[in-house]
Amino acid sequence: MKKKGHPLLGIHSALMMIFIYVPIVLVMVYSFNNTRLSGDWKGFTLDWYVSLMKDRHVMEALMNSLVIAVISTVVATLLGTISALSMRDFARKWKGPLNGVLYMPVIIPDIIMGLSLLVLFSQLQIPLGKSTVMIAHITFSMSYVYVVVNARLAGMGRQLEEAAQDLGATYWQTFRYVTLPQITPGIISGALIAFTLSLDDFMVSFFVAGPSSTTLPIYIYGQVKRGISPEINALCTLLILVSITLILLAQYVLNRGKGQKKHKMLPF
């Protein structure tokens, strides 16, 4: 007989959901408010979004965020995928320590990572700017890509690869026609997660960004210190929608890849 959970657990979960999501909903609602007074609803308007698109500083921050996110995502996806593939061939006694190193950016607090990278750049006398933000984002994004691709490889097993090699396939043919198609959903999901993390990151970017490399989260932080305006609500709403869309897309791609059972005939 299936045991039912304690009713207090459901109440606790509901309260946590309210605590987390109600403020987000309020930000999104007031981004359409036809007044600058956040607590007074005066009607629906899209004026703040129009004003946002005309703001030169917002557009500069958006371009910085997009350039950094795209480049860091490409590099992090490549490095994370290579790391996951390489770990398969390591001896078991080395996998534990190496996994710990690769998981470290996921575990340690962002403030510690940001501070440590700032110290590193200072010691190496690297000027802070877009390049340092990209390096920082690659550092933590690579670990998330590694986790997703590594999980995909673990679920795939080696049976298909061994069968392809028994049929005369070379190492490259096995990778091209067997391994890569199997892990592609994981690679795409990891890339989408890396892009989302880069686009939303504030803490690490705050430490390693220079004067000309202000990203959207840093710009929002600077504006909020002067007071919350409808334009900031609109900007936060757009970031929330983009983040949710990318995360859902990553989950969809990963689940769709897991659900595919049919395999194409190997061309060798």
Features:
0% strand, 268 residues, mainly alpha, MetI-like fold, transmembrane, 11 helices
Overview of this structure, please?
With about 270 residues, the protein is mainly α. The chain has helices at about 5-30, 45-55, 55-85, 90-105, 110-125, 130-155, 160-165, 170-200, 205-210, 215-225, 230-260. It has one domain (about 65-260): MetI-like fold, CATH 1.10.3720.10. Helix 3 (about 55-85) runs parallel beside helix 6 (about 130-155), helix 4 packs across helix 6 and helix 8 runs antiparallel to helix 11. The radius of gyration is 23 Å and the shape is globular.
Low-confidence segments, ≥5 residues, pLDDT <50? 261-265
Distance between the termini: 53 Å
CATH 4th-level superfamily: MetI-like
* Quaternary structure classification: single chain
GO cellular component, one term: plasma membrane
Family: Belongs to the binding-protein-dependent transport system permease family. CysTW subfamily.
GO biological process, one term: transmembrane transport
Pfam families: BPD_transp_1
